[in-house]
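Re-run with default settings, no changes from the original entry. Doing this only to confirm the output is reproducible before filing.
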Amino acid sequence: MKFNPNAITERPAERRALHTIVAYVEDKPGVLSRIAGLFRRRAYNIDSLTVGRTEVEGVSRMTIVVEADDRQARLIEANLYKLVNVLRVEDVTYEQTVERDLALVKVRADIDQRTQVLQMVEVYGARVVDVSPQSLMVEVTGSESKVQSLIDVLEPFGIIEMVRTGSIAMTRGPEPLTADPHFVAASVPKQNGAAR
């Protein structure tokens, strides 16, 4: 068999995809700004970012969805660990997770259209949370694709206003992610301010 130099091809670039990164952080002023600054400096676009309290006092949980390839996602994870108030980071993209997005959609629905809109809302398992003579406000929770699908269906009726939370994610099974993993030097402060 002869060697054919034209048969050599470069290794294909890693495919960019949406990565879901969960970060536990200390609940202190400026933490969100530092994390957003890290993404800005590295020129990564955040697709969605949600922040909320956890079951541990003084600790918040961020769910960050960012478009990156696998190598970039590992760099993001490593760079987040360098920030002083970050306690734990986990890329859960390839884990078994439950992901949810929530949207409130105010849609035009006069008397003639109302029945059709209500049927669509029922099909998607959404619910009406406010009614006025000319509009309905709909709450939908589910995967990002389900939320987007309902929005697409409601679009022809006329969307007046809309707000979405962005994704939140939790790994499946009995083992929790904890804010105090054994491999991280930082620790969650106790309620009286002393470190563990």
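The chain has two domains: 17-94, 98-169. The first strand starts at residue 17 and ends at 26.
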